[in-house]
């Protein structure tokens, strides 16, 4: 007997053939792997309105008789690309919106703007808040809680960096006069809405927001959710109260949601974000802040290379023109605003 084959010398056996070898089946299927991905030519567009633990609420057929909402998940092929509120995406799968149905987001269409923040000023990792907004409504209370100039400065820097037009809404003016606070922004061309006897001018704000996509930001407790509920009846955003001991607002909104406003044939979107007490700017490009002051940016072309435009900057063309009185009081106020915003980044 051969110790190699286990057969006696007189035994006969078939010649070895590769086809006789039994292979283990592929548990994931027998099709070979490929890097080619489907084109998804049948994908339909939609707007992301909500996000909740890996599930996305998407509005499809916007403005058509077939308009409806559905639930979707992110396709694996998107990898680490994040889907955020107000993204315009393309979907495949079951897009009927029927109860229990689930579609897949296979593409994120190019974004026009991206509002971001970081955990703190030393963290360059950005947290995307919302996509495709063209306006930012900064809601500030005249009192209870006290207005924070530095926090508003940070909102303005983030808006300028993203190319978003900032608006300012002052609530609770029946508790305090906001004039001293508003002087900090006299040099900026920002539209301001003020409450009268405690009532926010809802109709005036709604007319300004129609035709736009507006993201609301503000400290907790300033009345942001109250304003959204007034602008969009049926929004049902939770309303919090200010802590009488600390003077700080309690967080009530924990998610970013999109709501559509309608008035006749006009419509607009308002995106309510959770209240925050800090707004990191570690991701911001300083050059984008200066571009938001086009009159000063044009003068800055005469500044020496690397000019910071701060009070300690030598030979700054902007400061020289302001000192000579060429830009008047308005130019002085705008320079003060620019330096304060740049100082926010430097600090």
Quick gist of this model?
This protein has helices spanning 149-162, 179-182, 202-209, 224-231, 286-291, 294-299, 317-323, 328-346; strands at residues 44-52, 55-60, 68-74, 88-93, 103-108, 114-118, 126-131, 135-141, 165-171, 191-194, 213-218, 257-263, 266-272. The chain is of the alpha/beta class and 347 residues long. The strands form 3 sheets. It has a 6-stranded mixed β-sheet with strand order 10-9-8-11-13-12. It has a 5-stranded mixed barrel with strand order 1-2-3-5-4.
Walk me through this protein's architecture.
By secondary structure, the chain is α/β, with parallel strands linked by helices. The chain folds into 3 domains: 44-108, Nucleic acid-binding proteins (OB fold (Dihydrolipoamide Acetyltransferase, E2P), Beta Barrel), CATH 2.40.50; 114-272, P-loop containing nucleotide triphosphate hydrolases (Rossmann fold); 286-346, no CATH class. The chain is built from 8 helices and 13 strands. The strands form 3 sheets. Strands 10-9-8-11-13-12 form a 6-stranded mixed sheet. A 5-stranded mixed beta barrel has the order 1-2-3-5-4. A two-stranded antiparallel ribbon has the order 6-7. A hairpin with a 2-residue loop joins strand 12 (257-263) and strand 13 (266-272).
């Amino acid at each position: 007997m051969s110790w190699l084959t286990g057969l006696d010398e007189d035994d006969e056996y078939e010649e070895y053939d590769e086809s006789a070898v039994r292979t283990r089946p592929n548990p994931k299927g027998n099709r070979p792997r490929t890097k080619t991905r489907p084109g998804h030519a049948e994908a339909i567009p939609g707007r992301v309105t909500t996000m909740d633990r890996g599930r996305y609420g998407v509005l499809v057929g916007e403005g058509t008789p077939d308009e409806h909402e559905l639930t979707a998940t992110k396709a694996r092929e998107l990898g680490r690309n994040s889907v955020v509120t107000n993204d315009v995406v393309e979907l495949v799968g079951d897009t009927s919106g029927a109860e229990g149905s689930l579609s897949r987001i296979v593409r994120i269409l190019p974004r026009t703007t991206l509002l971001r923040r970081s955990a703190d000023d030393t963290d360059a990792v950005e947290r995307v808040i919302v996509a495709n907004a063209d306006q930012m409504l900064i809601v500030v209370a005249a009192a209870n809680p006290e207005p924070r100039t530095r926090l508003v400065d940070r909102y303005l820097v983030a808006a300028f960096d993203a190319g978003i037009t900032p608006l300012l809404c002052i609530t609770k003016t029946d508790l305090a006069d906001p004039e001293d606070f508003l002087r900090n922004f006299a040099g900026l061309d920002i539209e301001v809405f003020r409450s009268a006897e405690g009532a926010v001018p809802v109709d005036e704000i709604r007319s300004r927001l129609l035709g736009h996509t507006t993201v609301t930001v503000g400290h907790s407790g300033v009345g942001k959710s109250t304003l959204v509920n007034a602008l969009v009846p049926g929004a049902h955003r939770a309303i919090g109260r200010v802590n009488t001991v600390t003077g700080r607002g309690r967080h009530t909104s924990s998610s970013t949601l999109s709501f559509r406003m309608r008035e006749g044939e006009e419509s607009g979107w308002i995106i309510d974000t959770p209240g925050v007490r800090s707004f990191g700017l570690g991701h911001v490009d300083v050059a984008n802040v200066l571009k938001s002051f086009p009159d000063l940016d044009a003068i800055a072309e005469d500044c020496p290379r690397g000019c910071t435009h701060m009070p300690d900057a030598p030979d700054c063309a902007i400061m020289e023109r302001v000192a000579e009185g060429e830009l008047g009081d308005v130019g002085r106020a705008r320079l003060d605003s620019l330096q304060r915003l740049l100082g926010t980044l430097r600090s």
